[in-house]
Design brief:
- With 408 residues, the protein is mostly helical.
- 81% of the residues lie in helices and 0% in strands.
- Helix 3 runs parallel beside helix 6 and helix 15 runs antiparallel to helix 17.
- The N terminus is likely disordered.
């Protein structure tokens, strides 16, 4: 395949030692933050509070969706132009404008939430959009300070999980507000610390209206790409809630938290690989996968490890929990397929081909949701694992087809 040269500020690949430090920093932040979510839900499950797990998942699912919308694609797009002060300033202004709209719109989009606890979480948690509009995660990633950014990324998750443990098992509108407030306060701490770390990188250059509008359009497309994937996981939860009993919904929320945590851990590794994709020329498919070989190999190790642990689970877990363990392992086995498919998506993002990502992920999500709706009643949670495996195979093939067309 002919190599396509894309002009960029070429930088040497990050040395292995520094990359390990970057991954370690991101991993520590993950363990302190979203890792605590898994531990919190494990504790709630052990205490029989499966309904609270589901309510927590619904409320925080909406709040984190507003957070990602407010980022407006900055995690990737700001990384690629971290040294362009006017561009960075345009991102911050555009995101603030979008965040105000998100905060005002959220109550009208969540009228279907009828339980007081989840309503309370959304009521206060939605204001995280305004805080997160000013985050510098993409800027720090582009400057190869992912490790430092990762160390302080735990704030929102630490805040909401500590609040949840404090109020459990009480579920009311006010306790929900308390959990949402914990998420917002944690985000304030994280963003403030980002500005301390990146104070030498940030120089505000007032953008003009055309700069802001251009980024709203470009960043909005990127945000829709992420939002498609994020909304998909939440729609899955709502389908399970509408179709299955409360205990099954809580079990699925627990498994989903586990898988999301593993995917986030792999995404942290991806964040150290992404700057090299931005600054390198596009080669063949093998080159793209090789540049992300660390995350792909790690996903394989996790999947094999999960399968090997099942015999141990049969000895240690009570019989009633074995179904959850089997379903969890089925989902973990799909991780390498997700990792390989998303590796191609990373290349399109690195070269600002965000429309391709949006279309592929949207079609994959529609396929998975259709299969889930058709199979869930007869096959339970395992139907979702099969639907997602099918989705990952489809997205890989679709990216491969697009790759040959766009970069040939």
């Amino acid at each position: 395949m002919t190599t396509v040269e894309i002009p960029s500020n070429e930088r040497p690949a990050l040395p292995r030692g520094r990359r390990i430090w970057q991954v370690a920093g991101l991993g520590i932040g993950f363990a302190l933050g979203q890792g605590l979510t898994f531990l919190t839900q494990t504790y709630l499950l052990s205490q029989g509070h499966t309904v609270l797990i589901g309510e927590f998942a619904v409320g925080l699912g909406i709040v984190t969706l507003t957070q990602w919308f407010a980022d407006l694609g900055g995690l990737n797009l700001m990384s690629g132009k971290h040294d362009d002060h006017r561009f960075v300033s345009s991102v911050l202004v555009a995101r603030f404008c979008a965040a105000l709209f998100i905060v005002l719109l959220t109550p009208f989009c969540t009228t279907w939430i009828t339980t007081p606890f989840a309503q309370g979480v959304v009521e206060t948690g939605r204001y995280v959009a305004i805080i997160w509009a000013f985050n510098l995660t993409g800027l720090l990633d582009g400057a190869r300070r992912s490790g430092q950014a990762g160390l302080i990324s735990f704030g929102p998750w630490l805040g909401c999980n500590l609040a949840t443990i404090w109020i459990a098992p009480t579920m009311s509108f006010s306790t929900g507000q308390f959990v949402g407030l914990g998420f917002v306060i944690g985000a304030v701490v994280t963003v403030a610390m980002q500005y301390v770390i990146g104070r030498d990188l940030l120089k505000f250059v007032p953008p003009n209206a055309s700069d802001v509008i251009a980024y709203l359009r470009h960043g909005g497309t990127c945000a829709l790409t992420y939002a498609t994937a994020l909304t998909y996981s939440r729609v899955l939860l709502f389908i399970v809630y509408a179709t299955c009993e409360a205990a099954t919904t809580g079990a699925f929320a627990f498994i989903r938290s586990l898988i999301s945590s593993l995917q986030q851990a792999l995404t942290f590794v991806r964040r150290t690989e992404y700057p090299d994709l931005v600054t390198s020329s596009v080669g063949g498919l093998a080159k793209t996968l090789r540049m992300q070989s660390t995350s792909i190999a790690l996903s394989g190790v996790i999947a094999v490890g999960a399968v090997c642990c099942y015999p141990l689970a049969t000895l240690l877990l009570p019989t009633k929990d074995l179904d959850i363990a089997r379903s969890a392992i089925a989902f973990v086995v799909t991780l390498p397929f997700w990792c390989v498919a998303s590796a191609l998506g990373q290349q399109f993002l690195a070269k600002h081909k965000t429309q391709v990502n949006f279309v592929v992920i949207m079609l994959g999500a529609i396929l998975s949701l259709t299969l889930t709706t058709c199979l869930l009643t007869n096959f339970g949670i395992l139907a979702i694992a099969f639907a997602e495996l099918t989705m990952f195979v489809f997205t890989f093939l679709a990216y491969w087809f697009a790759y040959r067309r766009v970069f040939a």
